[in-house]
Protein 1
Amino acid sequence: MRTAAASLCLLSLAGPALSATYFLKDNIVGADFYKAFNFEAIADPTHGRVNYVDAATAISQNLTFAHEDTFILRADYKTTLDPNGPGRNSARIRTNKGEIDIVEGVNDQGPNAVTLHTSPGCTMPAERPETGTPTLLDCDTSVNGNAGCGVHMPGSVSYGPAFNNNGGGWYVVERTNDYIKVWFWARNDRTTPLEVKFGLPVVTTSLWVRNRKTASNLCS
């Protein structure tokens, strides 16, 4: 995916997990991303052919910029690479407040894979309530080439060019002590909850009808 426009709303849980009502805690929009995330100019820990650059380089090469409520983060897609040389310049960012990866893929290949990468001992049951398609079940980073345990979102518009051409969409992550759930709604999906579509400060996930594009992960 060459470009991505993003905003991030962090929600805090009110009451027991079963009530699933959340109130807005942090709203990260536009240039706020530069304060909330660190750029990591490191070797790719998954051994991909990529050259991660620091913030100053990313800005100077137009790999990232912010304007009003828009934040762009992308790889260099203009340079013709030497087949024997280093990988493409790109930006890798890490949040200052903990991390869950919700978008994962290779180049332009969809659909999106919601994936956990953990220490040893976390595995997924083969059967669990979700509408996505499970991949591997062992989340351990030291096995299966650090592929993790993933769930492919159904449909073709959750990642890559199809995602961009469709106007993007909304991802929602719910994390409790018992589970992690991820929902996706395409930009033109009429089933998108109003609190998601309009960025309302309170959401109640228990009221959502299970969307046709969901992924659930729980270590066993």
Protein 2
Amino acid sequence: MRLSAAFNSLKSSNLISWKKTGTLQQTLAGCIELTGKTLHSGKVSTVKIWPGFAGEGRYFEFQSKLIPASIDFAQESPLCTTLCKDGYKIRTVEHLLSALEAKGVDNCRIQIQSLDYEDPEVEVPIFDGSASAWVEAIEQVGRKEALDRCGNIAEKLAPYLNEPLHVSRNDSFMVAFPSPKVRITCGIDFPKVPAIGCQWFSSAALYDSYEKQIACSRTFCIYEEVKHMRSAGLIKGGSLDNAIVCSASKGWLNPPLHFHDEPCRHKVLDIIGDLSLFARSGSQGFPMAHVVSFKAKCFCSPVFSSSFGIYDLFVIYKYSSK
């Protein structure tokens, strides 16, 4: 089943109600421009984020093509979240979208370009492997109320979960409970990597705690898997400067960590970025729910883990609505 089919079922499902948040849609107060090396291709790309009109949401502009940051255009791919339209692909969008969602930038135009102007694929820069660069840039330019093309303000909506739903596979699961606030609880388990082991992280006020507790958590990988990933054409731009690397036998190769449970917190960062793809027309993407996951991979989680993904959660929406 395609992701777009699952999401279309979600939009018409009685599991979700779109309700007013009591706030107005926001956009950036100025333009952001950042350039950096990318994780998988190793190429350099430049991202310019412009203020957007209310009701138009977040969307990418690449090679004169407009690609909405929507689940309708999400494509499953190893080790990153990819948006695809008409053969053009934008990879590793999860950290940027996570920051935009958590910081309340509901509408914006994201221009992206690499040095290869004929390449139909481009990747968002990785920076230090976290979302800190994006959060800092957003804080620097600030936000403002978004106006539509007629000069009118627009109320912000949020998807409210009406009843619990869950998906599981072996010892992995993802559950979402109706909640008046956005909450997330995440668990990971790497029994063969003692330095990581089993970790849990929970945030009761997700958007309030994002900047200090989640955004600075960096992507991580297992040292023994690096050769396999590179032979698959991945992480060509990966280094100790843009990821924390852990060896099953030697532990962390580039300490110190920002938090003792930094890998788990980074999973939360990724989940926020992926669930931001629920957003439509300048609405909130992350559902008003308490999302609990254990060993549940997002589109961007390691391809070597034997777990299910958020894709399965979208599919559950479809079959629960029948």
Protein 3
Amino acid sequence: MGLQLLKTSPFATSRTFPVNSIASSRFLSTQVRRLSFATSSERAIFRSNSSSLFAVDTNRLQRRFRKGIVAMAAPETVQKSEEEWRAILSPEQFRIIRQKGTEYPGTGEYDKFFEEGIYNCAGCGTPLYKSTTKFNSGCGWPAFYEGLPGAINRTPDPDGRRTEITCAACGGHLGHVFKGEGFPTPTNERHCVNSISLKFTSGSS
């Protein structure tokens, strides 16, 4: 038995490395660390056992790191007073990010925006979403099918009807997540996010 990779995976390649060699063991350790930055749907393609061969597209991984497409998980906590947030954010940003408001549908900067890069928290700059997880849901707000590992917290609304999503680092309000709507995505989820809660960074920068 060997490691099976989906051909559509960003990690797929024809290069293989025996796990029992010293050089390949070091290589494997490096790739495992890199995989800790991948999304859950990317990590889910890997199935292995103790005698498997490890295959990975190192060139593709290096390009992704150079472009800044991969972001750190488990962000550090950012704590500020209300006065400090008001000084940093615009009045509309403060209303939505800190007071859990909602922008009008179809008005956000990133609703129909599909450049390659990373969407960061507009409040604290923590990376939240990869552009490859963004899709056109037609709902009037930016839609993503998953966030970066550890970047998004989920909290049921008091009325139990929806689940709020917030930045795990600063607690800034992003929007809500909905499940089972039937969109053709790997997770069958829609993260409905206010554009004003996000700050996009181009992958080519």
